[in-house]
Amino acid sequence: MGTLTVNMPATAAITEKVKAIAAAPFLPFRNHVSKSLLSGLMGRAILTGYLFKYTGEEVYRTECAAITEECMDALAEEAMTHTYCNGITGIAAGLHHLAALGLLEEDPILLLEDIDAAIHAFTLRDFETANWDFLHGGLGGFWYFLNRPDFAGHSAYFEQYLRLLDTLAEPTPRGCRWAMKPLRPEDEGEKIYSVGLSHGLPSIIMVLAQCVKKDICLPLSKPMLRKACNHLLSLQLPEGMGSVFPAMEAEGESLRASRLAWCYGDLSIAIVLYAAAEALADEQLGAMATHTAMATLTRDYSNTSLADAAFCHGTGGVAVLYLRLYKITGKPLFMERFRFWIDATLQLATHEDGIAGYKSFMGEEGFLCQPGLLEGVTGTGLCLLAALQPEETAWDTFFLLA
User: Residues 309-361: pLDDT tens digits?
Assistant: First the structure.
């Protein structure tokens, strides 16, 4: 790769773009305005809350409060799924986060008592039906309770979740792995093992690492974490393949290189390995995390599969991942790369019919106006805002990064 040009855009340009995103109407996506955290209005409440913290402008606190009230009303009045991505679990996580920022007057622990009981019941059901997925299954509820300020009061929940997760583990020569529950009808009957943070083994490792750090059910969590890490390490690709770890493993298929993104790829895996290394006090795991992170620096923009500015699989998410790596390691190269990808994110606002210039690449559907936090312009706004207040990125816990 050629010399990296570090060209952090002017603060004024970033501020203007984030404000334009916050001012844009929250458009329906596929004819629906969701209230959820990662695809709906709760994500917009998080953006306006952080924008208020940065600017001090009351208009953003007022908007944050109005959106939050709308989402809380939806919890009581609307039928919705339970998931972290699209349902009540994510909304509840967002309310706790806003409370921690001082932007919610009510105590969410009291406010969500009935909702929490439902989240626990759905989480158990998901694990019992082998749906352990983070975004759409049991790990989402697990992560929600783990990150609450009163997590210690839910030890009975955690033991149940860990025992169910352990029963779903498949032994391998080096450790253990978990098969994905098919997300599409056409995948029924296939055994696929994701190596991405969004739906795969790294998400389990991150949750287990948090359990070990917090001394939760150590006789269950610690051995499971060690075995999961051992299996992940066994998947390393030969040098020159394009990435250190693959995106997937499937019976009878060769391992292939992964993209550079939050959802799949070495960047998020490196962050997970650092978390596991800290939890297990394992220097070799830490060294592997550093090797994996440093390997991403050799990838040119042209071979990253990045097509938009979103968090999930776009330049915004890549920027924030490098910022998290800088916070973990203190290595200046990661800060330089953060600045590079922030610049790239700003430059992708090229769609005249987009939201503040942005559209998201949605595969066969092409580029669409996507308002959400995970795949849309709300997430892009938060990523850009990280360049203005890099110390204020606690929201990346929504994505298993802290």
Answer: 999 999 999 999 999 999 999 999 999 999 999 999 999 999 999 999 999 99
- 282: tokens are 């394992």
Q: Are residues 42 and 90 in contact, defined by beta-carbon separation less than 8 angstroms?
A: yes
Distance CA 100, CA 108 (A): 10
Please name the amino acid found at residue 328. Answer: I
Angstrom distance (rounded) from CA 230 to CA 228: 5
Say whether 63 sits in a helix, a strand or coil.
helix
Is residue 179 within 8 A of residue 192, CB to CB? The reply is: yes
Residue labelled with tokens 């809380």: 72
Residues 6+ apart with CB under 8 A from 373: 37, 38, 39, 43, 44, 46, 47, 311, 379, 382, 398
Q: What is the pLDDT of residue 2?
A: 38
CA atoms within 13 A on the CB side of 32: 8
Q: Considering only CA atoms, which of 183, 181, 222, 180 is closest in space to residue 205?
A: 222
Sign of the CA dihedral with 224 first, then 226, 229, and 234 last: negative
In one letter, which amino acid is 214?
K
Picking from 87, 174, 95, 210, the residue whose alpha carbon sits closest to that of residue 137 is: 87
- Give the integer Cα–Cα distance in Å for 252 and 255: 10
Angstrom distance (rounded) from CA 393 to CA 236? 30
3-class DSSP state for residue 177? strand
CA-nearest of 315, 307, 379, 301 to 343 is: 315
Number of H helices, E strands in the chain: 15, 6
Q: Where are the alpha helices (DSSP H) in 101-175?
A: 108-111, 113-128, 138-146, 155-168
